Amino acid sequence: MFDDPTFWKVARNNLIYAVGTIPTSIALALCMALFVNGKLRGRGVVRMAYFTPTILPMIAAANIWMFFYAPQIGLFNKLLGMLGLSGVNWLGDPSVALSSVIVMSVWKEAGFFMIFYLAALQSMPPELKEASDLEGTSRWSFFLAGHLPTIDAHHAVCAHQRPN
């Protein structure tokens, strides 16, 4: 089995897929959770919009992304055409197919991971934020000293939990 070049190609593709989806989904989910955790008008609608891809069946998600990726009539190729660029066969060209699948997977998974981070952020005592505001702490400093330690354990949970 280890002498088979197909095995190594599949192993390489799996590694690229994992490295492309897990950290990207986690980073995007954290940004989404930070965004919807703040004071935001229509926060419930935004949360629902972020989480909806997670509850879609994979076949529905695939059909949505086929609308974007279709070689002749896909939205991405139409946008490229408007810019004067030639279209791409997003799922048929081996040089971009894996990246295209990674983008779809990140879109589908990020809302799932957002729930974990949002739960962690909402469990943080509000006094912590009030104290940092009184001290004049910057948002970045508060993220590093307040949010990050609170959500630290959730990184491992998100890395091991996969919705599909």
TrEMBL record:
Q: What Pfam families does UniProt report for this protein, alphabetically? A: BPD_transp_1 (PF00528)
Task: Kindly provide the name given to this protein in its UniProt entry.
Answer: ABC transmembrane type-1 domain-containing protein
Cited InterPro entries: ABC_transporter_permease (IPR051393), MetI-like (IPR000515), MetI-like_sf (IPR035906)
Q: Where in the cell is it found?
A: Cell membrane
The record's annotation in Gene3D superfamilies points to:
MetI-like
What domain of life? Answer: Bacteria
The text of the family note is: Belongs to the binding-protein-dependent transport system permease family.
